[in-house]
Amino acid sequence: MALEKLIQRIESDAENEANDIIEKARKEAEEIISEAKKKAKKEAKEIESRGEKEAARLREKMLASARRKAREMEIRAKEEVIQECIEKAKEKLKKLKGKKYEAAVKKFIEEGKKTLGDCVVVPSREQDKKIAEKMGIKVEGKVDSIGGVILKSKDGSREIDNTFESIMERKLGELRIAIANELFSDKEE
Question: I need a labelling partner for 122 at 20 to 30 A (CA). Which of 51, 106, 171, 188 fits?
């Protein structure tokens, strides 16, 4: 009987040890599963956070692009208005007559004489020819222009183009700024 007790005891010990091993393995498995769940939750939150950050970044990028496009459209529209104003100014200058026109041409000729001394006038209109002749200045040729004159030194080495188009071209930057300020500046009234 001692042998049976010994076998029972060995079986009991083996069973207890197997139960301990199983319990320990179960606890380890639960810990591994628990850790895996925690890690998965953490990774899911990180992925979600990255996704939210990426979505926010894309949203900001799209908003910035939309703002830029709107600004470009606004600039193009303002540019069209400025160009239209310049064209209307040219049309008004083309129609300028009488004393205002005569005063402008006299001023152009006087400014040219200060720079060139004795000079020759190339008129754009018949009226320019008469003005220059009244001022005692030689007239030659004709320039295709909406108004104003070209002045040349007697020897032909220097020239001042005081036609309306050339004056506008020289003053275009200032003219554009003045138009923009007049039309688009925020005025407090």
Answer: 171
Helices (H) and strands (E) in the chain, counts: 5, 4
End-to-end CA distance of the chain: 118
Nearest Cα to Cα of residue 122 among 92, 169, 160, 179: 160
Of the CATH numbers 3.30.2320.30, 3.40.50.720, 3.30.430.20, 3.90.1530.30, which one belongs to the domain with range 97-184? Answer: 3.30.2320.30
Task: Supply 152's token pair.
Answer: 């040349």
Rounded CA gap, 64 and 70, in Å? Answer: 10
As a residue count, the chain comes to 189
- Residue whose C-alpha is closest to residue 149's, from 159, 136, 157: 159
Rounded Cα distance, 41 and 45, in Å = 6
Tell me the pLDDT tens digit for each residue of 91-147: 998 888 889 989 999 999 998 888 888 888 887 888 888 888 888 888 888 888 898
- pLDDT for 19 beyond 70: yes
- 69-97 pLDDT, tens digit per residue, is 999 999 999 999 999 999 999 999 888 88
The verdict on pTM exceeding 0.85 is no
